[in-house]
Amino acid sequence: MAQVTVTVDGMKRDDDVEPRTLLVDYLRETVGRTGTVVGCDTSNCGACTVLLDGESIKSCSVLAVQADGREVETVAGLAEPDGSLHPVQQAFHEHHGLQCGYCTPGMLMRSVCLVRENPDPTEDEVREGIKGNMCRCTGYQGIVAAVMDYAATARTEEAGR
What we know:
Elements: E1 2-8, E2 11-17, H1 23-31, E3 49-52, E4 55-58, E5 71-73, H2 87-94, H3 104-117, H4 123-129, H5 141-159
Parallel strand pairs: 1-5
Antiparallel strand pairs: 1-2, 3-4, 3-5
Helix pairs in contact: 2-5
């Protein structure tokens, strides 16, 4: 067993893990963040995307021990404590950026990172930015519109600070 100290959605945790435990499995089984889903287990689909120290990563391709001493943000940490939606979640809802919902957690997390990296993306930049996250249901139009709307909302909020 290996000891890891990981801050998950703002809460510091100390846990023992098998050295070969994938981050996605640690988040789901040990931390209880089941909103982070296992899609393909080969890092092709992006459903398991989380933010590790602010960078989007596919948590099925990272070991839990590699997150030791680091900060992980999951989809469960997006909504406000009162249950109100994060602006990216609201945008996905308003633009019908989800259907079955399986890709949605990873798509939301990749979108948050994308907008942090590029607060004013073009449609082509959004499409390029989410290309590592697969969706088999929506056709991507609603997702792209949601990310564009989220970026505009984030810029407005930032300007108001």
